Amino acid sequence: MAIDTKQMPLIRQPIFRDKHFYILLALFIACTVVYYFGELVNLLGWEALRWDIFYTVHDPHRMLFLVPILYSSYYYRLRGALLSNIISLLIFLPRAFFISPYPDATLRMVAFVILAIVISMLVVLTFNERDKSRISTDVLRRSEEKYRIVLEQMYDSYYEVDMAGNFTLVNDAACLNLGYTREELIGHNFQIVLSENEANTVFQAYHTAYVSGEPNKGFAFAVRRKDGTIGFAESSISLRKNERGEIIGFRSISRDITERKQSEEALHSAEEKYRSLVENINDIFYILDNQGKFTYISPGVERLTMYKMSELIGKPIFPLIHPDDLPGLLESFNHPVSGKLVPWEFRILDKDGRVIFVRVSRQLLYKDGKVIGVTAVMTDITERKQMEQKLEEMATHDFLTGLPNRVLLTDRFTMAAALAQRNKDRLAIMSLDLDKFKTINDTLGHEAGDQVLKTVSTRLTAIIRASDTLARIGGDEFILVMLETGHAEDATTIGNKILDSFREPLTIDGQQLVLSTSIGVAVYPEDAQDLEALIKKSDSAMYYSKGHGRNQFKFFSDGDVRMGGDHKSNP
User: Fold this and answer.
1) Which of 1.10.10.10, 3.30.450.20, 3.40.50.1010, 3.30.365.10 is the CATH number of 283-385?
2) pLDDT tens digits, one per residue of 223-248
Protein backbone atom coordinates (compact mmCIF):
# COMPACT_ATOMS: atom_id res chain seq x y z
CA MET A 1 0.00 0.00 0.00
CA ALA A 2 1.40 3.43 -0.93
CA ILE A 3 2.20 5.77 1.96
CA ASP A 4 1.21 9.40 1.75
CA THR A 5 4.27 11.15 3.20
CA LYS A 6 2.44 14.46 3.22
CA GLN A 7 0.20 13.25 6.01
CA MET A 8 3.06 11.87 8.13
CA PRO A 9 4.55 13.94 11.05
CA LEU A 10 7.61 15.93 10.14
CA ILE A 11 10.79 13.86 10.55
CA ARG A 12 13.96 15.98 10.95
CA GLN A 13 17.42 14.96 9.92
CA PRO A 14 20.07 14.05 12.54
CA ILE A 15 21.10 17.19 14.40
CA PHE A 16 24.70 17.26 13.12
CA ARG A 17 23.42 17.26 9.54
CA ASP A 18 21.06 20.16 10.09
CA LYS A 19 22.16 23.69 9.19
CA HIS A 20 20.13 25.08 12.08
CA PHE A 21 22.46 23.32 14.49
CA TYR A 22 25.41 25.28 13.19
CA ILE A 23 23.41 28.50 13.25
CA LEU A 24 22.53 27.78 16.88
CA LEU A 25 26.16 26.96 17.69
CA ALA A 26 27.29 30.19 16.08
CA LEU A 27 24.73 32.15 18.14
CA PHE A 28 25.96 30.54 21.36
CA ILE A 29 29.56 31.30 20.52
CA ALA A 30 28.72 34.88 19.63
CA CYS A 31 26.67 35.37 22.80
CA THR A 32 29.40 33.78 24.93
CA VAL A 33 32.08 36.01 23.44
CA VAL A 34 29.95 39.10 24.05
CA TYR A 35 29.04 37.90 27.53
CA TYR A 36 32.62 37.32 28.65
CA PHE A 37 33.72 40.48 26.97
CA GLY A 38 31.27 42.28 29.25
CA GLU A 39 32.70 40.44 32.25
CA LEU A 40 36.21 41.55 31.29
CA VAL A 41 34.98 45.12 31.08
CA ASN A 42 33.65 44.84 34.67
CA LEU A 43 36.85 43.20 35.95
CA LEU A 44 39.21 45.69 34.32
CA GLY A 45 37.17 48.70 35.34
CA TRP A 46 36.57 50.03 31.90
CA GLU A 47 33.73 52.07 33.17
CA ALA A 48 33.31 54.26 30.16
CA LEU A 49 33.24 51.32 27.83
CA ARG A 50 30.96 49.35 30.12
CA TRP A 51 28.58 52.21 30.52
CA ASP A 52 28.33 52.93 26.85
CA ILE A 53 27.90 49.39 25.65
CA PHE A 54 26.34 47.17 28.32
CA TYR A 55 25.57 48.83 31.57
CA THR A 56 22.09 50.27 31.12
CA VAL A 57 20.73 47.83 33.77
CA HIS A 58 22.48 45.33 35.96
CA ASP A 59 24.09 42.66 33.74
CA PRO A 60 21.73 43.22 30.77
CA HIS A 61 24.04 41.31 28.47
CA ARG A 62 22.99 38.14 30.28
CA MET A 63 19.72 38.26 28.32
CA LEU A 64 21.66 37.69 25.09
CA PHE A 65 21.42 33.98 25.70
CA LEU A 66 17.64 34.08 25.28
CA VAL A 67 18.25 34.48 21.52
CA PRO A 68 19.83 31.01 20.93
CA ILE A 69 17.49 29.48 23.47
CA LEU A 70 14.39 30.78 21.63
CA TYR A 71 15.94 29.95 18.26
CA SER A 72 16.59 26.35 19.30
CA SER A 73 13.14 26.10 20.87
CA TYR A 74 11.55 27.09 17.57
CA TYR A 75 13.47 24.73 15.33
CA TYR A 76 14.11 21.78 17.65
CA ARG A 77 11.20 22.02 19.98
CA LEU A 78 11.75 20.41 23.37
CA ARG A 79 15.07 18.70 22.73
CA GLY A 80 16.53 21.95 21.31
CA ALA A 81 15.41 23.91 24.38
CA LEU A 82 16.98 21.42 26.76
CA LEU A 83 20.18 21.42 24.72
CA SER A 84 20.34 25.21 24.81
CA ASN A 85 19.84 25.33 28.55
CA ILE A 86 22.51 22.72 29.15
CA ILE A 87 24.95 24.72 27.04
CA SER A 88 23.97 27.89 28.88
CA LEU A 89 24.59 26.16 32.19
CA LEU A 90 28.04 25.08 31.05
CA ILE A 91 28.81 28.64 29.94
CA PHE A 92 27.67 30.20 33.23
CA LEU A 93 29.57 27.79 35.49
CA PRO A 94 33.04 29.43 35.07
CA ARG A 95 31.68 32.82 35.99
CA ALA A 96 29.65 31.44 38.91
CA PHE A 97 32.51 29.65 40.58
CA PHE A 98 35.71 31.33 39.34
CA ILE A 99 34.90 35.05 39.13
CA SER A 100 34.95 36.28 42.74
CA PRO A 101 33.81 39.90 42.38
CA TYR A 102 30.26 38.70 42.03
CA PRO A 103 29.43 36.40 45.00
CA ASP A 104 25.78 36.34 44.08
CA ALA A 105 26.55 35.08 40.53
CA THR A 106 25.49 31.53 41.31
CA LEU A 107 22.03 32.59 42.46
CA ARG A 108 21.58 34.87 39.48
CA MET A 109 22.78 32.11 37.17
CA VAL A 110 20.38 29.57 38.62
CA ALA A 111 17.51 32.03 38.39
CA PHE A 112 18.46 32.84 34.83
CA VAL A 113 18.61 29.17 33.82
CA ILE A 114 15.22 28.50 35.43
CA LEU A 115 13.78 31.49 33.67
CA ALA A 116 15.28 30.36 30.37
CA ILE A 117 13.91 26.87 30.83
CA VAL A 118 10.42 28.17 31.62
CA ILE A 119 10.48 30.54 28.68
CA SER A 120 11.80 27.84 26.29
CA MET A 121 9.17 25.36 27.47
CA LEU A 122 6.43 27.90 26.86
CA VAL A 123 7.83 28.57 23.41
CA VAL A 124 8.03 24.85 22.70
CA LEU A 125 4.47 24.22 23.82
CA THR A 126 3.18 27.20 21.88
CA PHE A 127 4.86 26.16 18.66
CA ASN A 128 3.96 22.49 19.16
CA GLU A 129 0.30 23.31 19.53
CA ARG A 130 0.46 25.59 16.53
CA ASP A 131 2.19 22.88 14.46
CA LYS A 132 -0.27 20.24 15.59
CA SER A 133 -3.13 22.45 14.59
CA ARG A 134 -1.48 23.27 11.28
CA ILE A 135 -0.71 19.57 10.57
CA SER A 136 -4.24 18.52 11.55
CA THR A 137 -5.66 21.22 9.36
CA ASP A 138 -3.45 20.16 6.43
CA VAL A 139 -4.29 16.48 6.91
CA LEU A 140 -7.99 17.28 7.14
CA ARG A 141 -7.79 19.49 4.08
CA ARG A 142 -5.96 16.82 2.07
CA SER A 143 -8.36 14.13 3.31
CA GLU A 144 -11.36 16.23 2.34
CA GLU A 145 -9.80 16.94 -1.04
CA LYS A 146 -9.20 13.26 -1.69
CA TYR A 147 -12.68 12.45 -0.40
CA ARG A 148 -14.16 15.04 -2.75
CA ILE A 149 -12.15 13.77 -5.75
CA VAL A 150 -13.22 10.17 -5.09
CA LEU A 151 -16.86 11.15 -4.77
CA GLU A 152 -16.82 13.17 -7.98
CA GLN A 153 -14.99 10.53 -10.01
CA MET A 154 -17.02 7.51 -8.92
CA TYR A 155 -19.72 6.17 -11.21
CA ASP A 156 -22.04 5.28 -8.34
CA SER A 157 -24.34 7.84 -6.80
CA TYR A 158 -23.36 9.13 -3.36
CA TYR A 159 -25.58 11.26 -1.21
CA GLU A 160 -26.11 12.23 2.41
CA VAL A 161 -29.37 13.09 4.09
CA ASP A 162 -30.21 14.51 7.51
CA MET A 163 -32.61 12.96 9.99
CA ALA A 164 -35.54 14.54 8.20
CA GLY A 165 -34.53 12.92 4.92
CA ASN A 166 -33.31 16.12 3.26
CA PHE A 167 -30.30 15.97 0.95
CA THR A 168 -27.20 17.60 2.45
CA LEU A 169 -24.62 16.31 -0.04
CA VAL A 170 -24.78 14.71 -3.50
CA ASN A 171 -22.05 13.87 -5.99
CA ASP A 172 -22.04 14.43 -9.74
CA ALA A 173 -23.02 10.81 -10.46
CA ALA A 174 -26.18 11.20 -8.36
CA CYS A 175 -27.12 14.33 -10.29
CA LEU A 176 -26.44 12.61 -13.60
CA ASN A 177 -28.39 9.45 -12.73
CA LEU A 178 -31.38 11.37 -11.40
CA GLY A 179 -31.37 14.18 -13.95
CA TYR A 180 -31.29 16.97 -11.31
CA THR A 181 -28.72 19.65 -10.64
CA ARG A 182 -27.01 19.79 -7.25
CA GLU A 183 -28.94 22.91 -6.34
CA GLU A 184 -32.23 21.18 -7.15
CA LEU A 185 -31.46 18.38 -4.70
CA ILE A 186 -29.65 19.98 -1.75
CA GLY A 187 -32.16 20.87 0.96
CA HIS A 188 -35.00 18.89 -0.62
CA ASN A 189 -36.45 15.66 0.75
CA PHE A 190 -35.35 12.40 -0.86
CA GLN A 191 -38.98 11.58 -1.64
CA ILE A 192 -38.76 13.78 -4.76
CA VAL A 193 -36.77 11.00 -6.46
CA LEU A 194 -39.04 8.15 -5.36
CA SER A 195 -42.15 6.76 -6.94
CA GLU A 196 -45.24 6.81 -4.78
CA ASN A 197 -45.10 3.09 -4.12
CA GLU A 198 -41.44 3.16 -3.03
CA ALA A 199 -41.44 5.94 -0.38
CA ASN A 200 -42.61 3.73 2.48
CA THR A 201 -40.29 0.90 1.46
CA VAL A 202 -37.24 3.20 1.44
CA PHE A 203 -38.27 4.70 4.77
CA GLN A 204 -38.36 1.21 6.29
CA ALA A 205 -34.86 0.54 4.96
CA TYR A 206 -33.53 3.72 6.62
CA HIS A 207 -35.40 2.86 9.80
CA THR A 208 -33.82 -0.60 9.89
CA ALA A 209 -30.34 0.90 9.60
CA TYR A 210 -31.19 3.42 12.36
CA VAL A 211 -32.51 0.80 14.79
CA SER A 212 -29.82 -1.82 14.18
CA GLY A 213 -26.92 0.60 13.85
CA GLU A 214 -25.57 -1.60 11.06
CA PRO A 215 -25.36 -0.77 7.35
CA ASN A 216 -28.30 -1.94 5.26
CA LYS A 217 -26.61 -3.38 2.15
CA GLY A 218 -28.01 -4.51 -1.18
CA PHE A 219 -31.32 -2.70 -0.83
CA ALA A 220 -33.00 -2.26 -4.25
CA PHE A 221 -35.73 0.24 -5.07
CA ALA A 222 -37.23 2.19 -7.95
CA VAL A 223 -36.33 5.86 -8.52
CA ARG A 224 -38.18 8.54 -10.42
CA ARG A 225 -35.95 10.77 -12.53
CA LYS A 226 -36.63 14.41 -13.21
CA ASP A 227 -38.00 13.61 -16.68
CA GLY A 228 -40.51 11.19 -15.14
CA THR A 229 -38.83 8.00 -16.28
CA ILE A 230 -38.43 5.18 -13.79
CA GLY A 231 -35.05 3.65 -13.03
CA PHE A 232 -33.79 1.11 -10.51
CA ALA A 233 -31.00 1.46 -7.94
CA GLU A 234 -29.27 -0.83 -5.49
CA SER A 235 -28.11 0.98 -2.35
CA SER A 236 -26.02 0.56 0.76
CA ILE A 237 -27.22 2.70 3.67
CA SER A 238 -25.14 3.58 6.75
CA LEU A 239 -25.40 6.03 9.63
CA ARG A 240 -23.73 9.45 9.90
CA LYS A 241 -22.55 10.49 13.36
CA ASN A 242 -20.98 13.62 14.82
CA GLU A 243 -17.84 13.76 17.00
CA ARG A 244 -19.94 12.93 20.07
CA GLY A 245 -21.27 9.74 18.42
CA GLU A 246 -24.77 11.11 17.92
CA ILE A 247 -26.68 10.08 14.78
CA ILE A 248 -27.14 13.09 12.55
CA GLY A 249 -28.27 11.46 9.31
CA PHE A 250 -27.55 8.81 6.73
CA ARG A 251 -25.15 8.29 3.86
CA SER A 252 -25.83 6.05 0.88
CA ILE A 253 -24.01 4.69 -2.14
CA SER A 254 -26.37 3.69 -4.95
CA ARG A 255 -25.66 1.87 -8.17
CA ASP A 256 -27.89 2.26 -11.20
CA ILE A 257 -29.18 -1.22 -12.05
CA THR A 258 -31.84 -0.16 -14.55
CA GLU A 259 -30.31 -2.08 -17.46
CA ARG A 260 -29.76 -5.15 -15.31
CA LYS A 261 -33.31 -4.97 -13.99
CA GLN A 262 -34.70 -4.61 -17.49
CA SER A 263 -32.60 -7.57 -18.64
CA GLU A 264 -33.80 -9.65 -15.70
CA GLU A 265 -37.41 -8.75 -16.42
CA ALA A 266 -36.93 -9.51 -20.11
CA LEU A 267 -35.35 -12.82 -19.26
CA HIS A 268 -38.22 -13.56 -16.86
CA SER A 269 -41.03 -12.38 -20.11
CA ALA A 270 -38.96 -14.82 -22.10
CA GLU A 271 -38.88 -17.61 -19.38
CA GLU A 272 -42.63 -17.42 -18.92
CA LYS A 273 -43.20 -17.52 -22.66
CA TYR A 274 -40.73 -20.37 -23.01
CA ARG A 275 -42.37 -22.30 -20.17
CA SER A 276 -45.81 -21.77 -21.63
CA LEU A 277 -44.58 -22.84 -25.06
CA VAL A 278 -42.83 -25.94 -23.73
CA GLU A 279 -45.80 -27.00 -21.64
CA ASN A 280 -48.36 -26.61 -24.44
CA ILE A 281 -46.61 -27.83 -27.59
CA ASN A 282 -47.25 -31.35 -28.79
CA ASP A 283 -43.52 -32.00 -28.96
CA ILE A 284 -41.71 -33.17 -25.85
CA PHE A 285 -38.81 -31.18 -24.44
CA TYR A 286 -36.52 -33.01 -22.05
CA ILE A 287 -33.08 -32.80 -20.43
CA LEU A 288 -30.82 -35.77 -19.71
CA ASP A 289 -27.78 -35.86 -17.47
CA ASN A 290 -24.55 -37.68 -18.38
CA GLN A 291 -26.07 -40.99 -17.26
CA GLY A 292 -29.03 -40.59 -19.59
CA LYS A 293 -31.47 -39.86 -16.75
CA PHE A 294 -34.32 -37.39 -17.10
CA THR A 295 -33.74 -34.19 -15.12
CA TYR A 296 -36.68 -32.45 -16.81
CA ILE A 297 -39.43 -33.49 -19.18
CA SER A 298 -42.37 -31.44 -20.46
CA PRO A 299 -46.01 -32.39 -19.81
CA GLY A 300 -46.47 -33.51 -23.44
CA VAL A 301 -44.92 -36.84 -22.51
CA GLU A 302 -48.09 -37.78 -20.66
CA ARG A 303 -50.20 -37.36 -23.80
CA LEU A 304 -47.77 -39.31 -25.96
CA THR A 305 -46.64 -42.18 -23.76
CA MET A 306 -49.25 -42.22 -20.95
CA TYR A 307 -46.37 -42.08 -18.44
CA LYS A 308 -46.67 -39.48 -15.69
CA MET A 309 -43.87 -36.92 -15.47
CA SER A 310 -43.15 -38.09 -11.93
CA GLU A 311 -42.65 -41.64 -13.23
CA LEU A 312 -39.84 -40.53 -15.54
CA ILE A 313 -37.91 -37.81 -13.67
CA GLY A 314 -34.70 -39.32 -12.33
CA LYS A 315 -35.15 -42.46 -14.45
CA PRO A 316 -33.05 -43.36 -17.54
CA ILE A 317 -34.50 -42.92 -21.01
CA PHE A 318 -33.22 -46.23 -22.32
CA PRO A 319 -36.12 -48.51 -21.16
CA LEU A 320 -38.44 -46.39 -23.34
CA ILE A 321 -36.45 -47.17 -26.50
CA HIS A 322 -37.47 -50.03 -28.77
CA PRO A 323 -34.91 -52.85 -28.26
CA ASP A 324 -34.04 -52.96 -31.97
CA ASP A 325 -33.17 -49.23 -32.01
CA LEU A 326 -31.30 -49.08 -28.69
CA PRO A 327 -27.77 -50.03 -29.92
CA GLY A 328 -27.72 -47.36 -32.61
CA LEU A 329 -29.08 -44.75 -30.21
CA LEU A 330 -26.41 -45.55 -27.61
CA GLU A 331 -23.71 -45.21 -30.27
CA SER A 332 -25.03 -41.80 -31.28
CA PHE A 333 -25.35 -40.69 -27.64
CA ASN A 334 -21.81 -41.71 -26.70
CA HIS A 335 -20.06 -40.40 -29.81
CA PRO A 336 -21.30 -36.92 -30.73
CA VAL A 337 -19.99 -35.48 -33.99
CA SER A 338 -18.07 -32.18 -33.64
CA GLY A 339 -19.71 -31.47 -30.31
CA LYS A 340 -23.21 -31.83 -31.72
CA LEU A 341 -25.67 -34.68 -31.74
CA VAL A 342 -27.29 -35.27 -35.12
CA PRO A 343 -31.08 -35.78 -35.31
CA TRP A 344 -32.12 -39.36 -34.79
CA GLU A 345 -35.28 -41.26 -35.70
CA PHE A 346 -36.18 -44.27 -33.65
CA ARG A 347 -39.05 -46.06 -31.98
CA ILE A 348 -40.21 -45.84 -28.38
CA LEU A 349 -42.75 -47.89 -26.46
CA ASP A 350 -45.58 -46.28 -24.54
CA LYS A 351 -46.86 -47.54 -21.21
CA ASP A 352 -49.04 -50.15 -22.97
CA GLY A 353 -46.25 -51.32 -25.29
CA ARG A 354 -47.54 -49.48 -28.36
CA VAL A 355 -44.80 -48.61 -30.85
CA ILE A 356 -44.35 -44.88 -31.51
CA PHE A 357 -42.00 -43.47 -34.13
CA VAL A 358 -40.21 -40.30 -32.95
CA ARG A 359 -37.63 -37.86 -34.27
CA VAL A 360 -35.30 -36.26 -31.74
CA SER A 361 -33.17 -33.13 -32.21
CA ARG A 362 -30.49 -32.88 -29.53
CA GLN A 363 -27.86 -30.45 -28.30
CA LEU A 364 -25.08 -30.96 -25.78
CA LEU A 365 -25.48 -29.10 -22.49
CA TYR A 366 -22.31 -27.45 -21.11
CA LYS A 367 -21.30 -26.01 -17.74
CA ASP A 368 -17.86 -24.50 -17.12
CA GLY A 369 -16.68 -25.96 -20.43
CA LYS A 370 -17.70 -29.52 -19.54
CA VAL A 371 -20.58 -31.58 -20.98
CA ILE A 372 -23.13 -32.18 -18.23
CA GLY A 373 -25.97 -33.60 -20.31
CA VAL A 374 -28.23 -33.26 -23.33
CA THR A 375 -31.24 -31.10 -24.16
CA ALA A 376 -33.63 -32.55 -26.73
CA VAL A 377 -36.96 -32.07 -28.47
CA MET A 378 -38.90 -35.23 -29.35
CA THR A 379 -41.52 -35.17 -32.12
CA ASP A 380 -44.11 -37.87 -32.78
CA ILE A 381 -43.69 -38.95 -36.43
CA THR A 382 -45.82 -42.12 -36.28
CA GLU A 383 -48.36 -40.87 -38.82
CA ARG A 384 -45.59 -39.76 -41.15
CA LYS A 385 -43.88 -43.13 -40.89
CA GLN A 386 -47.14 -44.94 -41.55
CA MET A 387 -47.73 -42.76 -44.59
CA GLU A 388 -44.20 -43.40 -45.81
CA GLN A 389 -44.73 -47.13 -45.41
CA LYS A 390 -48.02 -46.90 -47.26
CA LEU A 391 -46.43 -44.93 -50.09
CA GLU A 392 -43.60 -47.43 -50.24
CA GLU A 393 -46.07 -50.27 -50.41
CA MET A 394 -48.02 -48.50 -53.12
CA ALA A 395 -44.82 -48.18 -55.11
CA THR A 396 -43.88 -51.83 -54.74
CA HIS A 397 -47.16 -53.65 -54.03
CA ASP A 398 -50.51 -54.15 -55.66
CA PHE A 399 -53.03 -51.83 -54.04
CA LEU A 400 -55.89 -54.40 -54.19
CA THR A 401 -54.29 -57.66 -53.04
CA GLY A 402 -51.22 -56.38 -51.24
CA LEU A 403 -49.02 -58.68 -53.34
CA PRO A 404 -45.74 -57.42 -54.85
CA ASN A 405 -46.16 -55.55 -58.13
CA ARG A 406 -43.92 -55.72 -61.19
CA VAL A 407 -41.38 -53.30 -59.63
CA LEU A 408 -40.80 -55.46 -56.57
CA LEU A 409 -41.01 -58.63 -58.66
CA THR A 410 -38.12 -57.39 -60.83
CA ASP A 411 -36.06 -56.57 -57.75
CA ARG A 412 -36.73 -59.98 -56.20
CA PHE A 413 -35.92 -61.77 -59.46
CA THR A 414 -32.62 -59.93 -59.81
CA MET A 415 -31.50 -61.08 -56.36
CA ALA A 416 -32.82 -64.63 -56.93
CA ALA A 417 -31.07 -64.89 -60.33
CA ALA A 418 -27.74 -63.75 -58.81
CA LEU A 419 -28.09 -66.35 -56.07
CA ALA A 420 -29.03 -69.09 -58.53
CA GLN A 421 -26.07 -68.23 -60.79
CA ARG A 422 -23.67 -68.38 -57.85
CA ASN A 423 -25.12 -71.72 -56.65
CA LYS A 424 -25.56 -73.07 -60.21
CA ASP A 425 -29.25 -73.53 -59.51
CA ARG A 426 -32.48 -72.93 -61.43
CA LEU A 427 -35.49 -70.65 -61.07
CA ALA A 428 -39.04 -71.37 -62.20
CA ILE A 429 -41.23 -68.53 -63.51
CA MET A 430 -44.97 -69.36 -63.46
CA SER A 431 -47.63 -67.31 -65.22
CA LEU A 432 -51.15 -67.87 -63.77
CA ASP A 433 -54.38 -66.63 -65.32
CA LEU A 434 -57.90 -67.21 -63.95
CA ASP A 435 -60.18 -69.03 -66.39
CA LYS A 436 -63.35 -67.17 -67.45
CA PHE A 437 -62.74 -64.28 -65.00
CA LYS A 438 -64.36 -61.81 -67.42
CA THR A 439 -67.67 -63.63 -66.99
CA ILE A 440 -67.58 -62.96 -63.22
CA ASN A 441 -67.02 -59.23 -63.76
CA ASP A 442 -69.77 -59.05 -66.33
CA THR A 443 -72.39 -60.99 -64.33
CA LEU A 444 -71.56 -60.15 -60.67
CA GLY A 445 -69.83 -56.80 -61.07
CA HIS A 446 -66.34 -55.49 -60.52
CA GLU A 447 -66.65 -55.47 -56.71
CA ALA A 448 -67.29 -59.19 -56.77
CA GLY A 449 -64.34 -59.57 -59.11
CA ASP A 450 -62.10 -57.70 -56.67
CA GLN A 451 -63.23 -60.02 -53.88
CA VAL A 452 -62.34 -63.03 -56.05
CA LEU A 453 -58.83 -61.62 -56.68
CA LYS A 454 -58.25 -61.03 -52.95
CA THR A 455 -59.43 -64.53 -52.03
CA VAL A 456 -57.30 -66.14 -54.73
CA SER A 457 -54.25 -64.13 -53.58
CA THR A 458 -54.75 -65.40 -50.03
CA ARG A 459 -54.99 -69.04 -51.16
CA LEU A 460 -51.93 -68.83 -53.39
CA THR A 461 -49.86 -67.12 -50.68
CA ALA A 462 -50.68 -69.97 -48.30
CA ILE A 463 -49.36 -72.55 -50.80
CA ILE A 464 -46.03 -71.09 -51.86
CA ARG A 465 -42.85 -71.10 -49.79
CA ALA A 466 -41.68 -68.07 -47.84
CA SER A 467 -38.67 -67.74 -50.13
CA ASP A 468 -40.86 -67.56 -53.26
CA THR A 469 -42.44 -64.39 -54.64
CA LEU A 470 -46.03 -64.14 -55.88
CA ALA A 471 -46.89 -60.93 -57.74
CA ARG A 472 -50.01 -59.55 -59.40
CA ILE A 473 -49.02 -57.79 -62.60
CA GLY A 474 -52.46 -56.80 -63.86
CA GLY A 475 -56.08 -57.95 -64.12
CA ASP A 476 -56.32 -61.62 -63.17
CA GLU A 477 -52.72 -62.42 -64.12
CA PHE A 478 -50.18 -63.48 -61.49
CA ILE A 479 -46.46 -64.28 -61.70
CA LEU A 480 -44.70 -66.66 -59.32
CA VAL A 481 -40.90 -66.78 -58.97
CA MET A 482 -39.79 -70.05 -57.40
CA LEU A 483 -36.23 -70.42 -55.98
CA GLU A 484 -34.10 -73.54 -55.89
CA THR A 485 -35.98 -75.58 -58.51
CA GLY A 486 -33.19 -77.95 -59.45
CA HIS A 487 -35.63 -80.42 -60.95
CA ALA A 488 -38.83 -80.09 -62.97
CA GLU A 489 -40.60 -82.07 -60.29
CA ASP A 490 -40.28 -79.12 -57.86
CA ALA A 491 -42.29 -76.84 -60.15
CA THR A 492 -44.70 -79.67 -60.95
CA THR A 493 -45.44 -80.19 -57.26
CA ILE A 494 -46.25 -76.51 -56.70
CA GLY A 495 -48.29 -76.40 -59.94
CA ASN A 496 -50.45 -79.33 -58.84
CA LYS A 497 -51.01 -77.75 -55.40
CA ILE A 498 -52.21 -74.56 -57.05
CA LEU A 499 -54.61 -76.44 -59.30
CA ASP A 500 -55.94 -78.41 -56.33
CA SER A 501 -56.56 -75.22 -54.33
CA PHE A 502 -59.09 -74.08 -56.94
CA ARG A 503 -61.21 -77.21 -56.48
CA GLU A 504 -62.74 -75.69 -53.34
CA PRO A 505 -65.51 -73.22 -54.28
CA LEU A 506 -65.19 -69.52 -53.42
CA THR A 507 -68.03 -67.79 -51.53
CA ILE A 508 -68.56 -64.26 -52.88
CA ASP A 509 -71.55 -62.14 -51.72
CA GLY A 510 -73.32 -65.31 -50.54
CA GLN A 511 -72.75 -67.16 -53.85
CA GLN A 512 -70.41 -70.09 -54.36
CA LEU A 513 -68.14 -69.89 -57.37
CA VAL A 514 -66.02 -72.66 -58.82
CA LEU A 515 -62.91 -71.33 -60.58
CA SER A 516 -59.91 -72.80 -62.30
CA THR A 517 -56.55 -71.46 -63.51
CA SER A 518 -54.20 -72.05 -66.40
CA ILE A 519 -50.44 -72.08 -65.69
CA GLY A 520 -47.36 -71.74 -67.85
CA VAL A 521 -43.81 -72.39 -66.66
CA ALA A 522 -40.43 -71.12 -67.92
CA VAL A 523 -37.10 -72.13 -66.38
CA TYR A 524 -34.05 -69.96 -65.70
CA PRO A 525 -31.48 -70.13 -67.22
CA GLU A 526 -32.38 -72.69 -69.88
CA ASP A 527 -35.38 -70.87 -71.38
CA ALA A 528 -34.03 -67.30 -70.82
CA GLN A 529 -31.88 -65.25 -68.44
CA ASP A 530 -33.83 -62.00 -68.09
CA LEU A 531 -37.23 -61.60 -66.48
CA GLU A 532 -39.08 -60.13 -69.45
CA ALA A 533 -38.04 -62.98 -71.74
CA LEU A 534 -38.95 -65.56 -69.14
CA ILE A 535 -42.38 -64.00 -68.57
CA LYS A 536 -43.07 -64.01 -72.32
CA LYS A 537 -42.23 -67.69 -72.53
CA SER A 538 -44.18 -68.60 -69.40
CA ASP A 539 -47.12 -66.60 -70.84
CA SER A 540 -46.88 -68.63 -74.07
CA ALA A 541 -46.98 -71.86 -72.05
CA MET A 542 -49.93 -70.49 -69.97
CA TYR A 543 -51.92 -69.55 -73.09
CA TYR A 544 -51.19 -72.96 -74.54
CA SER A 545 -52.71 -74.53 -71.38
CA LYS A 546 -55.72 -72.22 -71.58
CA GLY A 547 -56.23 -73.02 -75.25
CA HIS A 548 -55.99 -76.76 -74.67
CA GLY A 549 -58.61 -77.32 -72.03
CA ARG A 550 -57.72 -74.92 -69.16
CA ASN A 551 -57.20 -75.99 -65.52
CA GLN A 552 -53.69 -77.29 -66.28
CA PHE A 553 -50.04 -76.18 -66.47
CA LYS A 554 -47.52 -76.47 -69.28
CA PHE A 555 -43.69 -76.02 -69.45
CA PHE A 556 -42.37 -73.80 -72.22
CA SER A 557 -39.73 -76.41 -72.92
CA ASP A 558 -42.38 -78.83 -74.14
CA GLY A 559 -42.03 -79.14 -77.90
CA ASP A 560 -45.63 -78.23 -78.76
CA VAL A 561 -45.52 -74.78 -77.11
CA ARG A 562 -44.89 -71.98 -79.60
CA MET A 563 -44.14 -68.33 -78.98
CA GLY A 564 -47.01 -66.05 -79.93
CA GLY A 565 -49.62 -68.81 -80.31
CA ASP A 566 -53.27 -68.12 -81.28
CA HIS A 567 -54.77 -69.19 -77.94
CA LYS A 568 -54.61 -65.72 -76.33
CA SER A 569 -58.21 -65.19 -77.39
CA ASN A 570 -59.46 -67.80 -74.99
CA PRO A 571 -59.93 -66.12 -71.59
Assistant:
1) 3.30.450.20
2) 888 888 888 888 888 898 888 888 99
